[in-house]
Amino acid sequence: MVWAIGDIQGCYTNFRELLKKIEFNPRKDTLWLVGDLINRGKESLETLEYIYSIKESVKTVLGNHDISLIAAYFGIKKSNPTIEPILKSPNCDKLLNWIISRPFIHLDYSLGYAMAHAGVAPNLELGAAKYYSDILQKRLQGKDAKEWLKAMLKKDSPYFDPNGSNLDLERYILGSFTRMRYCYRDGRLDFKQKGSPKELKTKELFPWFDCPVKTEKELKIVFGHWSTLGFVNRKDILAIDTGCIWNGELTAVSLPNEVKVTVKCTNGLEPK
Q1: Kind of pairing between the strands at 58-60 and 30-33
Q2: Which terminus of the chain is less hemmed in, N or C, by CB atoms within 10 Å?
Q3: First and final CA of the chain: distance in angstroms?
Q4: pTM reported for the whole predicted model
């Protein structure tokens, strides 16, 4: 059985409760984790250590909070109380090397799904998305990874310009995989708006998956990142961040029959 699970963000107790509820067996089941494994939640170290212990049964992609952990590990971003135990752990190098080696997109044509933390940019075909994911992976694992990531985090690049500089193109790809929610009619990304589409007060913005100029994707996109969007299941997308860290729910969905299982979370943060 394959189970896709939403953003855990260090809510280890709830994560294990959900695994018990779905009767997860690492010897025969596979977990698809949409990223943001850690940060904000008080059990981030426990979460990461457990996921690493079953890594052969896990497919995961990098989310924005995972990138923040890597940045703190590289010394280019401040740590915080929820990731500090990871950085001080005797297993830190082993855990971070594994995180750094994770992709930004996972494709499974036999199942009929693709997974990326925030989704796949509306103007990218899946083949191009995989190509750019591979480039970002190589950058993150290369000898200049620290300087590259520092440059990536300096500013946003909302435009996809294949003729522009490599840095701007890679900033756009990184942002789309890990932080995207809304875009303009022409596909330009907006990284500021974080609320629910139901509360959107402008007609200029669209959820990325409803962009008027989007390319059709041959696989259904599984993603998290957007707790204010919540659970959405339709023909082209499966959104499964249901706000565990905000005392919402942690959601698992079986693939491909799409049975939904949730646990209520009570150890998170107060909603903003």
Answers
A1: parallel
A2: C
A3: 35
A4: 0.96
